Amino acid sequence: MIDGLGMTSSWPHRAALFWTVAYGGFGLVCALTDTPVFAGGDHRAPAGLDWSVVAIAALAAAALRSRRRALLWTACALSAISAFGLLMNVITLVFEQRVDDPVAAANEAFAALGVVLLAVTARSGRPSGRSVCPPAPSPAPRSARWAAYAGALAFVPYALMKTTWAVGGTFAGTSGAEMRAIAERNGASGLWLTLESWGIDATALLAALGIFLIFGLVRPWGQVFPRWTLVLRGRRVPRWLPLTPALLGAATLAPYGVAGVGYAALATAGAVTIPRGDFHTSADALLVSWIGLSAFGVYGIALTVAARSYWLRTRPTCA
Predict the structure, then answer these.
(1) Which site among 7, 133, 134, 282 is 20 to 30 Å from 85 CA-CA?
(2) Longest dimension (CA), the chain
(3) The model's pTM
(4) pLDDT, tens digit, for every residue of 139-159?
């Protein structure tokens, strides 16, 4: 039978229905046991907000039941908001083999899965022609390319700061040895400390990968595997391969960086006091915050622009 999205019941639709039951059940259990599912740093949101997880799952179930694409995209957007912070937890898990809050991390992973399933379900009902033709590789418009350059340049001061500490130098009144001791005290993994001993900061390495990603989104070589991939060279890059980390990074870094820059601006104006944390003075902490948060904010916005351009330029055409 054809559903309201113009398609037969498909595996994304069935998987999304299963997800609504699982995610709603997860939120209900957490709400009834007063276990907060939302956390930010050392702070946890009230357990009463857990009911929003149940509400998102219920909305998604209603959208899937009614086959209304607008409701599906609404539930998808709300799930994306609930998944905020997943990127930070993934980075922490990779380099430290732990997460700050397992329940919050589980909620973010659940929500991110829902984003994928709901988006695929919403798009699966689009009509298509007899054949689908991938477009020829093309560069992004000049505005998107300049945004990518700005995003890459924003990470340069951040990478230099972190590399200075990794090689044993001093920045913002804090030496590399002090930063290593802080990392050990905070439970840094052996992988993290090994990279530091080689003069490589893990976050600076991630910044380099981020720059590679954003350039791939705006240049033609980001749509075709290059020669050094050997067997894959010349083949088209699946759209989801660069878009998945791009969308995840943009959804996390853009709001985090923009909000953080706003807070740093208030601290600079004296409206709020920024805690010194592991640094010697609040001024040192503020300087480091400006460098890090500005990098995240500018790069996050640039990544959003580049991802949108890549999405539009790689849309298949129907023949």
Answers:
(1) 282
(2) 68
(3) 0.81
(4) 999 999 999 999 999 999 999
